[in-house]
Protein backbone atom coordinates (compact mmCIF):
# COMPACT_ATOMS: atom_id res chain seq x y z
CA UNK A 1 0.00 0.00 0.00
CA UNK A 2 1.25 3.46 -0.90
CA UNK A 3 0.40 6.47 1.18
CA UNK A 4 -1.19 9.56 -0.33
CA UNK A 5 -0.57 8.56 -3.92
CA UNK A 6 -3.51 9.36 -6.21
CA UNK A 7 -5.18 6.59 -8.13
CA UNK A 8 -4.78 7.12 -11.87
CA UNK A 9 -8.03 6.65 -13.80
CA UNK A 10 -7.89 4.35 -16.79
CA UNK A 11 -10.02 5.99 -19.45
CA UNK A 12 -10.55 2.72 -21.33
CA UNK A 13 -11.88 0.76 -18.33
CA UNK A 14 -15.61 0.36 -17.70
CA UNK A 15 -17.20 2.46 -14.98
CA UNK A 16 -17.73 -0.64 -12.85
CA UNK A 17 -13.93 -1.12 -12.79
CA UNK A 18 -13.14 2.36 -11.43
CA UNK A 19 -11.38 2.49 -8.06
CA UNK A 20 -13.78 3.51 -5.26
CA UNK A 21 -12.93 6.09 -2.63
CA UNK A 22 -14.03 5.54 0.99
CA UNK A 23 -14.18 8.57 3.28
CA UNK A 24 -14.02 7.95 7.03
CA UNK A 25 -12.51 10.40 9.52
CA UNK A 26 -12.77 7.99 12.43
CA UNK A 27 -10.88 6.82 15.48
CA UNK A 28 -8.80 3.64 15.55
CA UNK A 29 -11.67 1.25 16.25
CA UNK A 30 -13.83 2.93 13.60
CA UNK A 31 -11.19 2.28 10.96
CA UNK A 32 -10.81 -1.37 11.97
CA UNK A 33 -14.58 -1.89 11.73
CA UNK A 34 -14.47 -0.36 8.24
CA UNK A 35 -12.37 -3.20 6.76
CA UNK A 36 -15.30 -5.45 5.73
CA UNK A 37 -16.67 -2.57 3.67
CA UNK A 38 -13.27 -2.18 2.00
CA UNK A 39 -13.24 -5.90 1.19
CA UNK A 40 -16.76 -5.73 -0.27
CA UNK A 41 -15.97 -2.73 -2.47
CA UNK A 42 -12.75 -4.40 -3.62
CA UNK A 43 -14.79 -7.36 -4.87
CA UNK A 44 -17.58 -5.28 -6.39
CA UNK A 45 -15.37 -2.88 -8.36
CA UNK A 46 -12.36 -5.11 -8.98
CA UNK A 47 -9.92 -2.60 -7.51
CA UNK A 48 -8.92 -2.07 -3.88
CA UNK A 49 -10.37 1.23 -2.58
CA UNK A 50 -8.51 4.34 -1.65
CA UNK A 51 -9.27 5.61 1.86
CA UNK A 52 -9.53 9.27 2.81
CA UNK A 53 -8.96 9.52 6.57
CA UNK A 54 -7.85 12.01 9.21
CA UNK A 55 -5.68 9.95 11.61
CA UNK A 56 -1.95 10.15 10.94
CA UNK A 57 -1.69 6.53 12.14
CA UNK A 58 -4.07 5.26 9.43
CA UNK A 59 -1.29 4.28 6.96
CA UNK A 60 0.31 2.13 9.67
CA UNK A 61 -3.02 0.47 10.45
CA UNK A 62 -3.67 -0.46 6.82
CA UNK A 63 -0.06 -1.20 5.82
CA UNK A 64 -0.02 -4.31 3.64
CA UNK A 65 -3.80 -4.66 3.72
CA UNK A 66 -5.04 -6.40 0.58
CA UNK A 67 -8.22 -4.30 0.46
CA UNK A 68 -6.57 -0.87 0.68
CA UNK A 69 -4.79 0.74 -2.26
CA UNK A 70 -3.82 4.19 -0.97
CA UNK A 71 -4.42 6.25 2.16
CA UNK A 72 -4.98 9.96 1.64
CA UNK A 73 -4.84 12.07 4.78
CA UNK A 74 -7.02 15.04 5.66
CA UNK A 75 -5.48 16.80 8.61
CA UNK A 76 -8.55 18.86 9.54
CA UNK A 77 -12.04 19.13 8.12
CA UNK A 78 -12.67 22.43 9.85
CA UNK A 79 -9.54 24.40 8.95
CA UNK A 80 -10.29 27.03 6.27
CA UNK A 81 -9.20 25.84 2.87
CA UNK A 82 -7.37 29.04 1.99
CA UNK A 83 -5.07 28.65 5.02
CA UNK A 84 -4.21 24.94 4.70
CA UNK A 85 -1.60 23.90 2.11
CA UNK A 86 -2.20 20.25 3.03
CA UNK A 87 -5.77 20.56 1.79
CA UNK A 88 -4.45 22.06 -1.45
CA UNK A 89 -2.22 19.02 -1.98
CA UNK A 90 -5.08 16.69 -1.15
CA UNK A 91 -7.31 18.45 -3.70
CA UNK A 92 -4.66 17.95 -6.39
CA UNK A 93 -4.51 14.23 -5.58
CA UNK A 94 -8.27 13.80 -5.65
CA UNK A 95 -8.62 15.71 -8.90
CA UNK A 96 -5.85 13.64 -10.49
CA UNK A 97 -7.79 10.51 -9.61
CA UNK A 98 -10.76 11.70 -11.62
CA UNK A 99 -14.44 10.87 -11.08
CA UNK A 100 -15.22 7.62 -9.26
CA UNK A 101 -17.68 6.19 -6.73
CA UNK A 102 -17.28 7.81 -3.31
CA UNK A 103 -18.67 6.16 -0.17
CA UNK A 104 -18.84 8.74 2.64
CA UNK A 105 -19.03 6.93 5.99
CA UNK A 106 -19.16 9.99 8.26
CA UNK A 107 -22.36 11.52 9.60
CA UNK A 108 -20.82 14.33 11.63
CA UNK A 109 -19.19 17.47 10.24
CA UNK A 110 -20.48 16.50 6.82
CA UNK A 111 -20.77 20.07 5.52
CA UNK A 112 -16.95 20.53 5.38
CA UNK A 113 -16.60 17.11 3.74
CA UNK A 114 -19.26 17.95 1.16
CA UNK A 115 -17.49 21.22 0.36
CA UNK A 116 -14.14 19.44 0.06
CA UNK A 117 -15.46 16.67 -2.20
CA UNK A 118 -17.23 19.11 -4.50
CA UNK A 119 -14.07 21.22 -4.69
CA UNK A 120 -12.30 17.99 -5.77
CA UNK A 121 -14.72 17.64 -8.67
CA UNK A 122 -17.18 15.02 -7.38
CA UNK A 123 -20.87 15.48 -8.19
CA UNK A 124 -24.09 14.02 -6.87
CA UNK A 125 -23.79 11.08 -9.24
CA UNK A 126 -20.48 10.07 -7.63
CA UNK A 127 -21.39 10.38 -3.95
CA UNK A 128 -23.10 8.07 -1.48
CA UNK A 129 -23.67 9.39 2.06
CA UNK A 130 -24.40 6.77 4.70
CA UNK A 131 -26.54 9.21 6.67
CA UNK A 132 -28.95 9.45 3.74
CA UNK A 133 -29.63 5.70 3.72
CA UNK A 134 -31.62 4.64 6.80
CA UNK A 135 -31.92 1.15 5.33
CA UNK A 136 -28.26 0.69 6.26
CA UNK A 137 -28.81 1.41 9.96
CA UNK A 138 -28.09 -2.07 11.27
CA UNK A 139 -27.23 -2.43 14.95
CA UNK A 140 -23.62 -3.52 14.63
CA UNK A 141 -21.31 -1.23 12.68
CA UNK A 142 -19.88 -4.02 10.52
CA UNK A 143 -23.37 -5.01 9.35
CA UNK A 144 -24.15 -1.37 8.67
CA UNK A 145 -21.06 -0.96 6.49
CA UNK A 146 -21.79 -4.09 4.50
CA UNK A 147 -25.33 -2.86 3.77
CA UNK A 148 -23.87 0.48 2.68
CA UNK A 149 -21.30 -1.19 0.45
CA UNK A 150 -24.07 -3.05 -1.41
CA UNK A 151 -25.43 0.27 -2.69
CA UNK A 152 -24.38 1.99 -5.92
CA UNK A 153 -23.62 5.61 -6.60
CA UNK A 154 -25.88 6.70 -9.49
CA UNK A 155 -23.05 6.98 -12.02
CA UNK A 156 -21.12 3.93 -10.85
CA UNK A 157 -22.94 0.60 -10.97
CA UNK A 158 -20.76 -2.06 -9.41
CA UNK A 159 -20.95 -5.80 -9.69
CA UNK A 160 -23.64 -7.47 -7.55
CA UNK A 161 -22.67 -7.52 -3.89
CA UNK A 162 -20.39 -10.48 -3.23
CA UNK A 163 -20.39 -12.45 -0.02
CA UNK A 164 -17.91 -10.98 2.43
CA UNK A 165 -17.37 -12.28 5.96
CA UNK A 166 -18.82 -9.79 8.44
CA UNK A 167 -15.58 -9.59 10.41
CA UNK A 168 -12.74 -7.05 10.37
CA UNK A 169 -9.29 -8.15 9.23
CA UNK A 170 -5.89 -6.62 9.83
CA UNK A 171 -2.37 -7.59 8.84
CA UNK A 172 0.70 -7.49 11.06
CA UNK A 173 3.34 -7.45 8.33
CA UNK A 174 6.72 -9.12 8.28
CA UNK A 175 8.53 -5.88 9.14
CA UNK A 176 6.50 -5.14 12.30
CA UNK A 177 6.70 -8.80 13.37
CA UNK A 178 10.48 -8.75 13.04
CA UNK A 179 10.67 -5.45 14.91
CA UNK A 180 8.47 -6.86 17.69
CA UNK A 181 10.60 -10.01 17.92
CA UNK A 182 13.77 -7.91 18.30
CA UNK A 183 12.10 -5.70 20.89
CA UNK A 184 11.01 -8.70 22.95
CA UNK A 185 14.46 -10.30 22.67
CA UNK A 186 16.17 -7.10 23.82
CA UNK A 187 14.02 -7.13 26.94
CA UNK A 188 14.57 -10.83 27.60
CA UNK A 189 10.93 -11.67 26.87
CA UNK A 190 11.35 -13.78 23.73
CA UNK A 191 9.45 -17.06 23.88
CA UNK A 192 7.45 -16.09 26.97
CA UNK A 193 3.64 -16.21 26.99
CA UNK A 194 2.41 -12.62 26.96
CA UNK A 195 -0.87 -11.30 28.36
CA UNK A 196 -1.90 -7.75 27.55
CA UNK A 197 -3.89 -5.42 29.79
CA UNK A 198 -5.06 -2.18 28.18
CA UNK A 199 -6.89 -0.08 30.80
CA UNK A 200 -6.99 3.30 29.03
CA UNK A 201 -9.06 4.85 26.26
CA UNK A 202 -8.98 7.98 24.12
CA UNK A 203 -10.31 10.10 27.00
CA UNK A 204 -7.35 8.96 29.10
CA UNK A 205 -5.06 9.94 26.24
CA UNK A 206 -6.56 13.42 25.93
CA UNK A 207 -6.17 13.94 29.68
CA UNK A 208 -2.49 13.04 29.66
CA UNK A 209 -3.07 9.84 31.57
CA UNK A 210 -5.27 11.38 34.24
CA UNK A 211 -8.35 9.30 34.96
CA UNK A 212 -11.63 9.33 36.81
CA UNK A 213 -12.83 12.67 35.48
CA UNK A 214 -16.52 13.42 35.13
CA UNK A 215 -17.90 12.12 31.85
CA UNK A 216 -15.49 9.21 31.33
CA UNK A 217 -17.83 6.22 31.51
CA UNK A 218 -14.89 3.87 30.95
CA UNK A 219 -12.93 4.91 34.05
CA UNK A 220 -12.32 2.17 36.63
CA UNK A 221 -10.52 2.64 39.97
CA UNK A 222 -6.91 1.49 40.14
CA UNK A 223 -7.91 -1.00 42.82
CA UNK A 224 -10.23 -2.71 40.33
CA UNK A 225 -7.53 -2.93 37.66
CA UNK A 226 -5.10 -4.30 40.23
CA UNK A 227 -7.60 -6.98 41.26
CA UNK A 228 -7.95 -8.08 37.64
CA UNK A 229 -4.18 -7.93 37.23
CA UNK A 230 -3.65 -10.20 40.24
CA UNK A 231 -6.15 -12.68 38.82
CA UNK A 232 -4.27 -12.70 35.50
CA UNK A 233 -1.02 -13.36 37.35
CA UNK A 234 -2.57 -16.19 39.34
CA UNK A 235 -4.13 -17.90 36.33
CA UNK A 236 -0.94 -17.99 34.23
CA UNK A 237 2.15 -18.14 36.48
CA UNK A 238 4.42 -18.63 33.46
CA UNK A 239 3.23 -15.52 31.59
CA UNK A 240 4.39 -11.93 31.55
CA UNK A 241 1.75 -9.20 31.68
CA UNK A 242 2.33 -6.10 29.57
CA UNK A 243 0.35 -2.94 30.40
CA UNK A 244 -0.23 -1.35 27.00
CA UNK A 245 -1.22 2.18 26.13
CA UNK A 246 0.29 5.42 24.85
CA UNK A 247 3.19 7.60 26.06
CA UNK A 248 0.88 10.03 27.95
CA UNK A 249 -0.54 7.04 29.85
CA UNK A 250 2.87 5.59 30.76
CA UNK A 251 3.17 7.22 34.23
CA UNK A 252 -0.19 5.72 35.21
CA UNK A 253 0.77 2.32 33.76
CA UNK A 254 4.02 2.42 35.72
CA UNK A 255 2.10 3.09 38.94
CA UNK A 256 -0.12 0.07 38.25
CA UNK A 257 2.89 -2.11 37.49
CA UNK A 258 4.63 -1.10 40.71
CA UNK A 259 1.46 -1.50 42.75
CA UNK A 260 1.08 -5.06 41.45
CA UNK A 261 4.22 -6.04 43.36
CA UNK A 262 5.14 -8.54 40.62
CA UNK A 263 8.30 -8.56 38.49
CA UNK A 264 6.20 -10.19 35.75
CA UNK A 265 4.21 -6.98 35.14
CA UNK A 266 5.68 -4.36 32.81
CA UNK A 267 4.38 -0.98 31.61
CA UNK A 268 5.18 -0.49 27.92
CA UNK A 269 2.99 2.45 26.92
CA UNK A 270 5.99 4.57 25.91
CA UNK A 271 7.37 1.90 23.59
CA UNK A 272 4.44 0.81 21.43
CA UNK A 273 4.09 2.49 18.05
CA UNK A 274 1.02 1.12 16.30
CA UNK A 275 2.85 -1.39 14.04
CA UNK A 276 4.56 -2.93 17.08
CA UNK A 277 1.28 -3.05 19.03
CA UNK A 278 -0.37 -4.91 16.14
CA UNK A 279 2.50 -7.39 15.92
CA UNK A 280 2.36 -7.86 19.70
CA UNK A 281 -1.38 -8.53 19.60
CA UNK A 282 -0.88 -10.99 16.74
CA UNK A 283 1.25 -13.21 19.03
CA UNK A 284 -0.23 -12.48 22.48
CA UNK A 285 -1.78 -15.23 24.58
CA UNK A 286 -4.77 -13.04 25.49
CA UNK A 287 -5.86 -9.49 26.25
CA UNK A 288 -8.18 -7.66 28.64
CA UNK A 289 -9.16 -4.06 27.95
CA UNK A 290 -11.82 -1.40 28.02
CA UNK A 291 -13.99 -0.78 24.99
CA UNK A 292 -11.43 1.04 22.84
CA UNK A 293 -9.70 0.91 19.48
CA UNK A 294 -6.94 -1.58 20.39
CA UNK A 295 -9.68 -4.06 21.38
CA UNK A 296 -10.85 -4.13 17.76
CA UNK A 297 -7.26 -4.48 16.57
CA UNK A 298 -6.69 -7.45 18.87
CA UNK A 299 -9.79 -9.32 17.73
CA UNK A 300 -9.00 -8.62 14.07
CA UNK A 301 -5.61 -10.25 14.67
CA UNK A 302 -7.03 -13.33 16.39
CA UNK A 303 -6.09 -12.48 19.98
CA UNK A 304 -8.46 -13.90 22.67
CA UNK A 305 -10.14 -10.92 24.25
CA UNK A 306 -12.15 -9.67 27.22
CA UNK A 307 -13.77 -6.25 26.70
CA UNK A 308 -15.17 -4.15 29.55
CA UNK A 309 -17.83 -1.60 28.58
CA UNK A 310 -18.81 1.72 30.07
CA UNK A 311 -21.96 3.22 28.52
CA UNK A 312 -21.62 1.74 25.03
CA UNK A 313 -23.51 -1.25 23.66
CA UNK A 314 -21.75 -4.50 22.86
CA UNK A 315 -24.50 -5.16 20.31
CA UNK A 316 -23.12 -2.26 18.28
CA UNK A 317 -19.44 -2.31 19.17
CA UNK A 318 -18.38 -5.84 20.10
CA UNK A 319 -15.09 -6.69 18.35
CA UNK A 320 -15.29 -9.55 15.87
CA UNK A 321 -12.56 -12.03 15.01
CA UNK A 322 -11.85 -13.44 11.54
CA UNK A 323 -10.23 -16.54 13.08
CA UNK A 324 -13.03 -17.38 15.51
CA UNK A 325 -10.87 -16.43 18.50
CA UNK A 326 -13.04 -15.83 21.58
CA UNK A 327 -14.34 -12.37 22.44
CA UNK A 328 -16.04 -12.02 25.84
CA UNK A 329 -17.59 -8.86 27.22
CA UNK A 330 -19.00 -7.49 30.45
CA UNK A 331 -20.85 -4.28 31.41
CA UNK A 332 -22.27 -1.56 29.20
CA UNK A 333 -25.74 -0.63 28.00
CA UNK A 334 -26.70 -4.22 27.16
CA UNK A 335 -26.18 -5.11 30.82
CA UNK A 336 -28.24 -2.09 31.94
CA UNK A 337 -25.16 -0.10 32.99
CA UNK A 338 -24.04 3.37 32.08
CA UNK A 339 -20.47 3.31 33.34
CA UNK A 340 -17.68 0.81 33.90
CA UNK A 341 -17.73 1.66 37.59
CA UNK A 342 -20.99 -0.30 37.80
CA UNK A 343 -19.15 -3.52 36.87
CA UNK A 344 -17.53 -5.20 39.86
CA UNK A 345 -13.98 -6.54 39.51
CA UNK A 346 -15.20 -9.99 40.53
CA UNK A 347 -17.39 -10.14 37.43
CA UNK A 348 -14.48 -9.23 35.17
CA UNK A 349 -12.22 -11.75 36.93
CA UNK A 350 -14.77 -14.55 36.51
CA UNK A 351 -15.01 -13.77 32.79
CA UNK A 352 -11.22 -13.66 32.41
CA UNK A 353 -10.86 -17.05 34.05
CA UNK A 354 -13.21 -18.57 31.46
CA UNK A 355 -11.53 -16.95 28.44
CA UNK A 356 -9.82 -19.61 26.30
CA UNK A 357 -6.24 -18.49 25.81
CA UNK A 358 -3.78 -19.35 23.05
CA UNK A 359 -0.21 -20.37 23.69
CA UNK A 360 3.02 -19.83 21.74
CA UNK A 361 3.97 -22.63 19.39
Write up this protein.
- This protein has 361 residues and is α/β, with parallel strands linked by helices.
- It folds into 2 domains: 148 residues, Rossmann fold (3-Layer(aba) Sandwich); 181 residues, Rossmann fold, CATH 3.40.50.
- It contains 14 helices and 12 strands.
- The strands form 2 sheets. Strands 1-4-3-2-5-6 form a 6-stranded parallel beta sheet. The protein has a 6-stranded parallel beta sheet with strand order 9-8-7-10-11-12, with helices on both faces.
- β10, α12 and β11 form a beta-alpha-beta unit.
- α7 packs across α11 and α9 packs parallel to α14.
- The longest helix is centred in the middle third of the chain and has 14 residues.
- The protein is elongated.
- 46% of the residues are buried.
Amino acid sequence: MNVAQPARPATDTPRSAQRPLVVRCGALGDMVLLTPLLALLHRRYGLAPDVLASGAWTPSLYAGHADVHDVLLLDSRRRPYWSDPRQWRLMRMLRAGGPRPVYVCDERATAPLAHLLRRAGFGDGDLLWVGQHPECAHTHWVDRWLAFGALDAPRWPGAPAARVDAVPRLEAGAGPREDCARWLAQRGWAGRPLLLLHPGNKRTLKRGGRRGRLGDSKAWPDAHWLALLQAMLARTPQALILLTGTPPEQPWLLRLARASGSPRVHAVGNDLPLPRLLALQARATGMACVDTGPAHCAAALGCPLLVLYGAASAAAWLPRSPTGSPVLWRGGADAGRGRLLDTAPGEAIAAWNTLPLRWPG
